[in-house]
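During the reporting period the student researcher (J.K.) took over the structure-prediction task from the postdoctoral fellow and processed the backlog of single-chain submissions. One of the processed entries is reproduced below for the supervisory committee.
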Amino acid sequence: MTLSLIGGLVVTGATAALVYAFLQEASESFARAEDRVTSRYDTMGPEDGEGWEEFEELEDGEDFGEFGAPEDDEPPAEKDATITKCTRDSLINWVSADIKVVNGSTSPASYVVFVSFVDRDGDVVTEGLAVTDDDVAPGATARIEAQGLGEVPAGTKCRIDRVEREAMTG
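J.K. obtained the following structure tokens:
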């Protein structure tokens, strides 16, 4: 029994480490891609303008096409998420945060909540994220969990760093 529990924890830990490594690589890849795009398009191009199109900026109130106008009147997504519980597992010393998401917007939305786990000095010791499984209806509640990776010291606290809300339109 104990051996199978330890084996299960090892497999879970290895899986979590792989996910973390993948997310780190993806994050770095996005940063590199952003740098390439910025460097590619921040210069003016050919002298004669050949191959370059002129785009007019939309004036306030103009049609945004099929995507619709941005929701400026929606409350910030950060107000939709709160940490309800921050727990450090006494067996493996990993930390997790239980998060309650209440959709404060006017349309169904999916959420990604980025959490930092900080020690008593306020230094980040690990990070995690939580994602809603399904779209959250306006005013509805979803409960999700962000798992930190690796051992953390006693007294580690949970802090929401960023909340992304993606409105789902029909």
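The committee noted the following: The chain has one helix and six strands.
J.K. will present the remaining backlog at the next meeting.
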